[in-house]
Design goal:
Helix content: over 70%
Radius of gyration: 30 Å
Largest sheet: none
Strand content: under 5%
Shape: elongated
Number of helices: 10
Number of strands: 0
Order of helices and strands: HHHHHHHHHH
């Protein structure tokens, strides 16, 4: 957004410069820049050639700027070929480093390892998230939330593939708590992208019975309505 704003400001400035160049260098009759008609004519003759070149260069600069801006920001036709940026934002990278440090300082702290796993997933570092969750399972034993998170991390690590290990982890999570948030959302999302809207609705409706974990219930209800609309089409 910042790049877009800066580009728009630059283009507006160039356009204003072009208009100002046309007005001042070619001279509009009765302009206030010249004291009388004789001086106006003499100045116009002297700068006619250089003024023309200057204005042409300004116009070329504006056109080139617009084309460059469009090529960088406006390639809407390429949206179907878009790929995720593999570079982690520097703020997120700092947060990941901070979570790593805290996890190293408090290796047996569930909240620290859970935080590291979540922020690693946010940064697309799914393998590191899985390693943190495996440490959690070693310290605390079977846990529905950890199973659900690990299933989610492995699912996205394998390019949204519902592998045997992912299925086993979701089953383990739901066996411990049938309304577990991460496992239900994972199954619902996978069903939805595979156009199995009724299965997605069932998982989301089941999730609404979850009383142990906090989540945005309005978003789940919206997802259910959206899936129902797809079924009715």
């Amino acid at each position: 957004m910042t790049i877009l704003l800066i580009s728009i400001v630059i283009i507006c400035i160039l356009l204003l410069m072009t208009l100002f160049g046309h007005h001042t260098l070619y001279g509009i009759k009765h302009t206030s820049f010249f004291s009388n008609d004789n001086e106006f004519d003499s100045n116009r003759i002297k700068c006619k050639g250089s003024c023309f070149v200057f204005v042409v260069l300004l116009n070329i600069t504006v056109v080139v700027s617009i084309l460059i801006t469009y090529s960088y920001l406006g390639r809407y036709k390429d949206i179907d070929f878009a790929r995720a940026d593999t570079n982690v934002d520097y703020l997120l990278a700092a947060e990941i480093n901070r979570a790593r440090k805290q996890a190293d300082e408090y290796p047996n702290d569930k909240s620290m390892l859970m935080s590291l796993a979540r922020v690693s997933m946010d940064g697309g570092l799914y393998l590191e998230a899985v390693e943190a969750l495996d440490e959690l399972l070693e310290y605390m034993g079977d846990d529905a939330e950890v199973f659900g998170l690990k299933a989610t991390a492995l699912y996205y690590k394998n390019n949204r593939s519902m592998t045997g290990e992912v299925k086993l982890l979701t089953e383990s999570a739901l066996a411990l708590y049938q309304h577990e948030f991460n496992a239900r959302v994972l199954l619902a999302n996978d069903a939805y992208i595979n156009h199995d809207y009724q299965a997605a609705i069932n998982h989301w409706q089941n999730l609404l019975n979850n009383t142990k974990q906090s989540f945005n219930r309005s978003a789940i209800e919206f997802a259910i309505n959206n899936a129902q609309n797809n079924i009715s089409r």
